[in-house]
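fold-stage: in
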Amino acid sequence: MADDLDRLLDEVERRLCRLPGRGAAGHHRLGDGEEEEGAAAKEGRSAKLLMSAGSSEEDIDDIIDEICNDSSFAKTPLKLKSNSASLTPESNSAVVQAHRKRCCPVYLGGSSSPYGIGTNVSKRTCDQLRCTACDFHVSLFNDYIWDQSCDYLFFRNNMPELSKLRAKMIKKKGARAYACQCSWRSIDELTDLQTDQQLRWVCGKHAE
């Protein structure tokens, strides 16, 4: 290892300092003092080279540490996305709506007619009516009918406050009074809604 280092140093001297190489043909033999001085000089050069190499390694280590400690390389926790997304209130509502059913056909009826999902087989009266004209829920009152003096402005101004509607409600056993903000009906028996073309009422869906 020492011989290889000497040869390396001699090569550097020859190239950079233009000094004749040692041990070459015709070179005079050094005395003991000169050999000691030469050995000391080589050791000094070796120490400088080793210090330079060590300094380079330290510089490299400093650069690596600086890169690792750089804020731009700071580790951030990974956000794992769940395969099954949790249900939000909106999506939960959509799921509930998907399991609701409409009446087909839609039936109106008196107080003796049971509520439920109307079908051709099960003729139940719809209690989830909504008006597509005024966008109001249709209110219904068992054993009542509307007074003949009722008009559009009465319902427009008073729906859905029962205390004000009572002014024109007449008690009648077996009947049922229906009303939204723009239309009203008094029904005594089971009636298919399709037979009344003026009404804009539809089934607003029933929970199963």
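fold-stage: in (second)
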Amino acid sequence: MALLLRSVARQSVCMSRQHFCVLYRHAAPMGTTAKEEMNKFWSKNTRLNRPVSPHITIYKWSVPMMMSITHRGTGVGLSGAISAFAMAALVLPGNFPYYLDLIHSLSVGPILIGLAKFGLAFPVSFHTFNGIRHLWWDIGKGFRIPEVYRTGYTVIGLSIVTSIALTCL
């Protein structure tokens, strides 16, 4: 019985392959390549004097737009800095007090140290407060345009105040 089923199955597979060969024989080759289609598209847009859209020159810069860009930038910067410090801690010889003493031995002025502290504190505080703002949006609150601007200015103000407070520590 099994031998009979195998032979019938093989016959049907062979028949289906011939069927696909017949379909394939009637297939027409493509007339153009993707590169040709792309060149045709761009030449048509150039000929009709169409702008590349969306283009950065058509947007009016706004607080929400800048905050979104800054939030992404601080996120990438913070993750890169944390990764770099982690790799340095793994690879470099010595321990944390050694490198802290090395920084103290540089004899940089208090203004430069304050700017460095602010440069470290601002991305952390901005990304944290703007992340809280995004969590607020995730629950469906604060989508009206005045609220978006108000919470944006609040995040900027809190970030600056918190960064100054952390710098003074």
